[in-house]
Specification:
This protein is an all-alpha fold and 78 residues long. The chain is built from four helices and no strands.
Length: 78
C-alpha cells in the first residue's frame, strides 16, 4: 500500500470500529490528521470530517471510500 490516503483510511477504519467506547471517532480523526501531517499533507479538523468519522464507525464507509473522500477534501482545499 503506497497511497498515503489509503494508509490514513486504514488507520481510521481500524480505530473507529475498535473497542474503545465514546472515543473511537475522535481518536480515528486525530490519527488520520497526524499521519497525513507526517506525510506533508495538512488537513484541518472540521465538522465535515467529524461526520465522516461517524459514517466510518457505523460501517457506511470502507477504507477505499474514506481514502477517496480524504483525497477529494485535500484536493478541494488546495
Amino acid at each position: 500500500m503506497d497511497d498515503v490516503f489509503e494508509i490514513a483510511a486504514m488507520y481510521a477504519v481500524a480505530i473507529a470500529r475498535g473497542h474503545v467506547n465514546d472515543a473511537n471517532k475522535r481518536t480515528a480523526l486525530v490519527s488520520v490528521l497526524a499521519y497525513l501531517d507526517t506525510e506533508g499533507i495538512s488537513m484541518k479538523r472540521s465538522a465535515q470530517l467529524e461526520e465522516i468519522m461517524v459514517d466510518v464507525a457505523q460501517g457506511l464507509l470502507d477504507e477505499q471510500a474514506l481514502a477517496d473522500v480524504l483525497y477529494a477534501l485535500h484536493t478541494a482545499s488546495n
